[in-house]
Amino acid sequence: MESEQETQETAAGRDSSVRLPLTLTIVAVLVWxxxxxxxxxxxxxxxxATKQQQDLAVQESQKLRAQFKAIASKTVELxxxxxANANAVVEQFGKTGIDLGSVGGQVP
Length: 108
Hints:
Elements: H1 2-80, H2 84-95
Helix pairs in contact: 1-2
């Protein structure tokens, strides 16, 4: 009888000695997962805010590009009509690599 009782006590001792490390490992993995989730959510929020700021900058640049195209097309139109100042502007743009005359007012 004593040997069965000792076996049961030994098994119970092994069982309790395995539970603590297993429980600590499970809790650690759970805490790490929750922590990583919060970090990813914060990063997502930051990326969303950055994208919104960039969207505003892109919209402003598109407006400026449209304005520049309008000015460039009017300048080319004046140059074709013989305006000396407009010809000088088109030539200056040509020297910088922007050929307004060949694209018919379309700026690359």
